[in-house]
Amino acid sequence: QVQLVESGGGLVQAGESLRLSCAASGNTFDINRMGWYRQAPGNQRELVATISNSGATKYGDSVKGRFTISRDNAKNWNLQMNSLQPEDTAVYYCKASYYNGIDYWGKGTLLTVSS
Hints:
Elements: E1 3-7, E2 10-13, E3 18-25, E4 31-39, E5 46-52, E6 57-59, E7 67-71, E8 76-81, E9 90-98, E10 103-105, E11 109-114
């Protein structure tokens, strides 16, 4: 059974930085792509960043140049967030996409950015 656990959320002020981490357990050998998504109140879940096994990255337009996704190994990946703004306030979810087309999600971690 695959489980994803996010950590690192919290309350920060605008302009500050924060790092989120995702730890996967279970079969992580067949993960094709790791990612971060977020959902603000009243909004749909949106892409923040993804990284493939080859290291190719993709970012949402609103975080380009401020956020950086990285992976430590097949079980752990991170999201470095700089120059945080109040509009970054959301629940952040990590996601693991497998070669067989199945996706797994974490339960989310809340980030609140105060102005």
